[in-house]
Amino acid sequence: xxxxxxxxxxxxxxxxxxxxxxxxxxxxxxxxxxxxxxxxxxxxxxxxxxxxxxxxxxxxxxxxxxxxxxxxxxxxxxxxxxxxxxxxxxxxxxxxxxxxxxxxxxxxxxxxxxxxxxxxxxxxxxxxxxxxxxxxx
Length: 137
What we know:
about 0% strand
């Protein structure tokens, strides 16, 4: 079972690297809404299951996808911000830092979507939970 999980993470990391490079070079204008929805759901799943060994690949892939899609992610911001908030409640400092890192990577696109209030909300939770849990560790 552990071996299967290792190969799954390795494959997923390679897959994200390929998506990252493809979207950087060709853009996302040809992606239909169903594919965008699947892409966002897959990225959210990967972000929730991320370990410390390949977190940079997933965070880079997520940031590239959000930046490539631009304002097309407006419909998915509630899911993304909910996932970030959920990860900020974790006791692990590494998990909370990954959530804060993701929030910083998508901040520009969230502001372009006109969701300034949502970004304020996320940054409030980032500051609160990073500060609060630092005293508990």
